Input
Amino acid sequence: MESLNINITNFEGPFDLLLHLLKVNKMKIQEIRISEITSQYLLYLHSMKELDLEIASEFLLMASTLLEIKSREMLPKHKEEVDEEELKEKLVLRIEEYEAFKIIAEKIGERFRNDLFIFTKRAETIIQDEVPLDKLLQGVTMDSLYLTYKSLMNRQKEKVNRSFVRTRTMEREEYRIEDKMEDLERILAGRSTFSFSDLLTGMKSKAERIVLFLAILELSRNRRIRVSQEDVFSEIIIEKGVEDGR
Amino acid sequence: MEDKLYTVLEMEGLFELEPYVSALESILFAAGEAVRKKDLMRILSLREKDLDEVIAAYQEELDHGRRGIRLLILENRIQLGTKECNTHYLKELLGVNDRQSLSKGALECLSIIAFKQPVTRVDIDEIRGVNSDYVIQKLQEKGLIKVVGRKDAPGRPKLYGTTDDFLIQFGFSSIREMRDGNEIPERILEMDLKKKEAEKEDIELFEEE
Output
């Protein structure tokens, strides 16, 4: 293949590059010859790499799409859900759509550069006479003022959070998943099933419950126990795992 | 209360346009900013059809007369603006600097939003083949686009649309005018319509003020 003289211009994205390659090759979008374009596209990416330019992931994504279509074209046809024609058609559509917007962008860009301003006037400020005080206070009584004040103060009071004032002792919590796992297995040695909520009742703190739950997850992952539930939010039943039965 | 200055001739399809055109001009001049068609209908007590006729007559007069004012029809609002051809003098008068140009990417993004609005960032990315985060942010800062709603999809993504300022700065009187001047292949438009139809219920637009 003749060496392509690639002009490293700034491409807006993979579609921009594809359009450029199509133009260089005088190919219409609909008549895109994937294998040719793919090798040129990759060549371009290589030259970018040589120049130590960072290749944006979008360009790599496009490369993989091109390669996929190309390789499918080369392989004997299988009965597959998507054939390469479909993929190609999709790609063609996307290039066309990008091209349409690229052209529009150029056109409106020209309009913008032409610097054709349209000036508009600010909204008119119409000065209004101040409302006299007696009109402003019309219908306001001492009573209604008091009630308004009261309800405002109440609203403010309700906003204040007093709950943290209560003193509480925090117990130091020390639970380990390993211990809980052992506990669980010990219980299971005695009986074949039990429910999750039964276990919870004996727990002292939230932390202990969480550790217990984690222990259950861990055991079920190791298939030491089996966990089942009939419905969402219904009781969780814990049984001995299959491993013991082997 | 004053008497109504003008009365509508109730004869079907026949009413005196001139007084309304005159009233419309005064209203738009006094308002300065864009006036909603809904408000104009109320103020002039006109039906939409008749108001459209009045607007069309006024626009005709402005466009073809030797006037320096043009009508901006910003979707459902109307505003007066200066004619583009006089930009040079106005810049001299107001001492406006040349504006910063927009990048290729920004213009692409803007075109897509103008055509497809309301549209999500993901949709824009899809078309451009690159991430548009930065460009969208810049366009928003420049006041050319704005968030117009949210899509009822995972993450409730923002929906973008163009602003009045976009129309004014690019010298379009409406989005339709912009679309008419820039053709998009039929195939793509059809595809788009189908997509829009399918997603109609997921689009939540913010109420306009």
Observations:
- Residues 14-113 of chain A form one domain.
- Residues 27 and 148 of chain A are 77 Å apart (CA to CA).
